[in-house]
Write a structure and sequence with these properties.
The protein has 142 residues and is mostly helical. Helix content is 74%, strand content 3%. The protein has a two-stranded antiparallel sheet. The protein starts with 8 loop residues before the first helix and ends with a helix.
């Protein structure tokens, strides 16, 4: 097959989206890693990439209604993933809620990338890191 390409332009576009999701998930994940949280760099990268891939595949099939349902399912499913990260101690202290929320938003960032909302995805990734780094919970000050 002369002139046949090993990769279609649609697949190349999808791979570029996945790489963008990898980078933006990494931006959030590296902050969690530096904060020594159990769900760190790899978790956030994989959540962001997976969310992007699921939505991008359905978009590639030309079915935006299904892509919207997939995005909704991702939000629900990541709620369960995040819940598994939350720990309650006998003292009543609860840990992991912020990391659970960062996992959830990493999925949303991946969906934004799949929808080619790159500026929005990058802005949300940076705002997420800003919140995680610089918004101090009053209890931590005392």
């Amino acid at each position: 097959m002369a002139g046949a390409s090993l990769i279609s332009s649609e697949e190349l576009t999808m791979i570029l989206k996945i790489l963008a999701a990898l980078a933006l998930g990494g931006v959030v994940g590296i902050e969690r890693e530096f904060s020594h949280k159990p769900a760190g760099l790899r978790t956030h990268i994989l959540v962001c990439m997976g969310s992007c891939l699921f939505v991008a595949i359905w978009m590639d099939l030309g079915n935006m209604d299904s892509a919207a349902r997939v995005a909704a399912a991702i939000a629900t499913g990541l709620g369960f993933v995040g819940a598994g990260n939350i720990m309650a101690e006998k003292t009543g202290a609860i840990h992991g809620i912020t990391t659970a929320a960062s996992i959830w938003i990493a999925g949303a960032i991946g969906v934004c990338v799949a929808l080619e909302k790159y500026f929005l995805a990058a802005a949300v990734a940076l705002l997420t890191v800003a919140v995680l780094r610089w918004v101090i919970y009053e209890k931590e000050i005392k």
